[in-house]
Structure formats: structure tokens, C-alpha cells
Design a protein that fits this description.
Helix content: 25-40%
Radius of gyration: 24 Å
Strand order of the largest sheet: 6-7-8-3-9-10
Order of helices and strands: EEEHEEHEHHHEHEHEEHEHEEHEH
Oligomer: single chain
Distance between the termini: 34 Å
Structural class: alpha/beta
Strand content: 25-35%
Number of helices: 11
Shape: elongated
Largest sheet: 6 strands, mixed
Number of strands: 14
Length: 316
């Protein structure tokens, strides 16, 4: 089921063309990583989906509902967390959540239970009586996420949620996002920190100058960047038996699944032909010839390589 859909969405501000005919589909339960440099159009897209901006052209839909024509029906379905969290510094964490729960028309015993649940999920229970102004950046981001979870939205729109966090807080926030995925939430997470997107999301979109350059699964974009699989191999060398890395490379030079070989510091790299879907045929061949394999692992394509390959590095 498609939960978020953009159809030829555009946004113009006089001379500035923020979004240019953007198409996008996000399925139910997906975590979609929205990647692009600052000024590429990520926040504009999220604000349109959050009903805060109207598109200049095209349609944006959440659960099949047009966000521009029927915003009041969309708002209960979404939780929007902006990149800069607006908080009331003089409130306690409990008071802050009670205020927003009341705004969502959550009252009585249900309000108490909902607040307890989101505090538990975000691991903020020990900060219940703390002033909002006393929270660290990481705790503040958790509070922002707790706020948008109060009404149990189906879709979460998170704009640069890990920006400015220290390494520990970033790891903890990533774990929280993964837990939300396990709960079945559909997430759209914008970021320019590529490593964190690859760890949290199963689909990505790359946007530049308001144009969507790619949208799809991480596996698909990796194949687009690097058609053949690369495998790192390290053996237990036994020179007296003729079983060295150099000998193994000689054995594999004529292998029908191997495109190319490259020596490394602690072993060698095998580039498989695009049509080879099972790298184990190489390891099985080596093992059958008596080579003792210490390490045999596919080399993943990191998102930095993907981003540089697809984008031009230009921001309007």
C-alpha cells in the first residue's frame, strides 16, 4: 500500500524554483531516507506533506488524501518534527506533553496512559519532572519525537532529526527510529548525514536543485552505481602447500563468475560479473581446492559513493 505519494509536485517562490516536478511513492512501513545538500528541497517537501505549505502545482497525498484540499483530514495521520524544535522552556517535560495531548483532544485517563507510553518509548521517564530548558540536545530531540507520537500517527515526517547530536545521542536516536519501524510506522527522514540514513532506512531518495534524481530501494541504487558485486577475500596462507593469496587469484582468473581481481593489503578483492547472483560459487571453488578462508564478505556500496555518483554537487 502506498502511504505517501507526490505527483509532479512543484513549489515556486517568485524567481526561486524550490521543487521541480517531484514524483515520489513511499510504501506502508517503509523508512524513506531523503538525501540532499542544504537548499535542495527536502524541508519544502516535508512542509508540503505536513500541510504547512501548498504546492504550486501537482498533488501530494497521504493515505490517499490530498494534503492541500483536505488538510484537516491529513493532520491526524501525520507527525511532523521540524529541524529546529520549538519548545516552551519554562515547562516541565510532563507539562509540555500534557499541553500537546490536550491540543490533540486527548483527555482523562487516556492522556495519562499515552504520555506514559511515549515517555517509556523515548526513554524520557526519568526526565518527567525536568524543565525543558535543562534538556540536552539529544534529550530535546527525544522530547520532540515524543510530542509527535502522542496521537499515534501513521506517518512520521522527521526533518534532520540527528543534526547536532553527539555520537552517543545519534546512536540512541537511530535505535529509536528502528523501533518505530518495528512498530509499523511509515517514516520520511531528511538528512545530509549519509551514514545514518543507510543504517535507518530501507528506501532512499536523492534530491538536488529541487529535482528528484533517484527514488527507490538502497539495493537498487547500489546496483545502479556498481553493477557487479565486490567481495573481499582473506585466506590463511600456507606457502609450503602453494596456497597463498597470489595462488588463489591465479585460480580465479579464469572463473566464469569473475570479472576482475585486485590485490589488497591483507587479501584480495573479487569483482563478480553482473549476472552472478551468488558469490558463494567463488568461495566454494576456493574451498574445494584446499584454500582455508578466513574472511569472505560482500563489500557494500556506501551512500557517500552513491550520492557523489548521482548528484552533480550543485545547489541552486
Amino acid at each position: 500500500m502506498i502511504v505517501v505519494r507526490l505527483e509532479k509536485v512543484e513549489k515556486r517562490y517568485r524567481e526561486v524554483h524550490a521543487l521541480r516536478s517531484v514524483d515520489l511513492e513511499i510504501g506502508e512501513g517503509d523508512a524513506f531516507g531523503f538525501i540532499g545538500p542544504n537548499g535542495a528541497g527536502k524541508t519544502t517537501t516535508l512542509k508540503i506533506l505536513a500541510t504547512l505549505l501548498r504546492p504550486s502545482a501537482g498533488r501530494a497525498l497521504v493515505c490517499g488524501i490530498d494534503v492541500a484540499r483536505r488538510p484537516e483530514e491529513v493532520k491526524p495521520l501525520i507527525g511532523y518534527m521540524p529541524d529546529v524544535l520549538g519548545v516552551y522552556d519554562d515547562m516541565l517535560v510532563q507539562e509540555y506533553l500534557e499541553f500537546f495531548a490536550a491540543a490533540y483532544r486527548i483527555h482523562g485517563e487516556r492522556r495519562r496512559k499515552v504520555i506514559d507510553d511515549v515517555l517509556s518509548l523515548t526513554d524520557l521517564g526519568i526526565k518527567r519532572e525536568a524543565q525543558v530548558r535543562s534538556l540536552s540536545r539529544g534529550m530535546g530531540q527525544r522530547l520532540g519525537l515524543a510530542r509527535v507520537l502522542l496521537h499515534d500517527p501513521k506517518v512520521l515526517l522527521l526533518d534532520e532529526p540527528a543534526a547536532g547530536l553527539d555520537p552517543r545521542a545519534r546512536i540512541e536516536f537511530k535505535q529509536l527510529v528502528l523501533e518505530l519501524r518495528r512498530m509499523g510506522k511509515t517514516l520520511l527522514i531528511s538528512s545530509h548525514i549519509l551514514g545514518e540514513i543507510g543504517e535507518m532506512c530501507n528506501t532512499i531518495g536523492i534530491i538536488e536543485q529541487g529535482k528528484m534524481l533517484f527514488a527507490g530501494s538502497i539495493e537498487d541504487v547500489q546496483k545502479r552505481v556498481r553493477p557487479g558485486t565486490r567481495v573481499q577475500v582473506r585466506l590463511k596462507e600456507e606457502p609450503e602447500a602453494g596456497r597463498t593469496h597470489a595462488e588463489a587469484m591465479e585460480v580465479l582468473r579464469g572463473h566464469p563468475a569473475v570479472e576482475a581481481l585486485r590485490p589488497g593489503e591483507a587479501g584480495f578483492e573479487v569483482l563478480l560479473k553482473p549476472e552472478c547472483a551468488d558469490p558463494s560459487v567463488v568461495s566454494a571453488d576456493l574451498a574445494s581446492r584446499g584454500f582455508r578462508i578466513l574472511h569472505f564478505a560482500e563489500e557494500a556500496v556506501d551512500l557517500e559513493e552513491v550520492f557523489l555518483h548521482i548528484t552533480k554537487g550543485v545547489v541552486s
